[in-house]
Task: inverse folding
């Protein structure tokens, strides 16, 4: 079942957390000359038109990217993140997806492996990546991100950033995510795995972080950003989380310094808060 389309949600509060963490991670990987692989198991379309009918239907970007664009007095890393996005977006009415951010931040020797199953989003992704001139160092495949990840590990460079960002519209995605991390760590224990998940009232969304922590108990970072209190009827996404196995060394400190501002900026009611929980060997 492929009903999820990220175009409806592009630039929302969850993209702010996810893309900020991705940006900090890639910047950290770029500190060393040694090339690395970027693997995106659930890529989406790569670029989104915020004036398009999908983004305009609910206008979620107004409570995400638009707020960040208009913010004043940002801490250093958030200001740098906003500046970077502004630099890499081809036009003001566009917002980037994870593959676009990654192709812009990776270097000539780094490799990208992008997976997207939805036929229309795959086509957009392919066109967008061709536009970005990715051909020499990246592949875009219309294949299953879960299976493809296992087949790629370990990467020849023994350095990799893996983003796992499924739709979670099917409750099996929670189990698939945990299985994917388990299998990936078995094949490539040193990989840096970034996992996004929604904060919902449903049971699976509460238990996923603890399940993931048990898979990488010595070396993880877990962050959640709640933009509002959960609704009494249990409906909707009140925040989102990132679980990172083998996080970059600087990430905990960077998030400690920036999450208070980001949470204040994205808050929708008095229930806004963040969680930062780190374990390093
Ligand atoms: N990572 C993107 C970003 O940050 O811009 C957003 C990705 S979106 C949340 C999830 C995407 O996964 C959707 O475009 C959906 O079509 C795709 N998808 C769903 N199941 C998939 C699968 N098994 N393999 C690859 N892609 C899949």
Result:
């Amino acid at each position: 079942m492929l009903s999820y389309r990220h175009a409806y949600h592009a630039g929302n509060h969850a993209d702010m957390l996810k893309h900020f963490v991705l940006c900090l991670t890639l910047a950290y990987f770029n500190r060393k000359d040694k090339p690395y692989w970027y693997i995106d198991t659930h890529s989406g379309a790569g670029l989104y038109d915020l004036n398009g009918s999908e983004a305009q239907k609910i206008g979620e970007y107004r409570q995400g990217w638009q707020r960040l664009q208009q913010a004043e007095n940002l801490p250093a890393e958030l200001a740098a993140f906003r500046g970077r996005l502004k630099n890499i977006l081809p036009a003001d009415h566009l917002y980037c997806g994870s593959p676009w951010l990654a192709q812009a931040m990776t270097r000539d020797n780094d490799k990208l492996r992008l997976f997207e199953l939805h036929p229309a989003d795959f086509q957009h992704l392919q066109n967008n990546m061709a536009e970005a001139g990715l051909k020499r160092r990246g592949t875009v495949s219309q294949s299953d991100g879960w299976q493809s990840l296992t087949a790629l590990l370990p990467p020849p460079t023994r350095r990799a950033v893996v983003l796992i960002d499924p739709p979670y519209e099917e409750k099996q995605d929670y189990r698939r995510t945990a299985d994917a991390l388990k299998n990936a760590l078995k094949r490539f224990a040193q990989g840096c795995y970034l996992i996004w998940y929604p904060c919902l009232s449903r049971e699976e969304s509460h238990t996923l972080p603890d399940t993931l922590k048990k898979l990488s108990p010595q070396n993880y970072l877990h962050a959640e950003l709640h933009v509002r209190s959960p609704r009494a009827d249990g409906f909707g996404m009140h925040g989102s989380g990132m679980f990172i196995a083998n996080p970059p060394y600087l990430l905990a400190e960077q998030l400690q310094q920036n999450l208070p501002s980001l949470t204040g900026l994205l808050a929708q009611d008095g229930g806004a808060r963040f969680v930062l929980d780190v374990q390093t060997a």
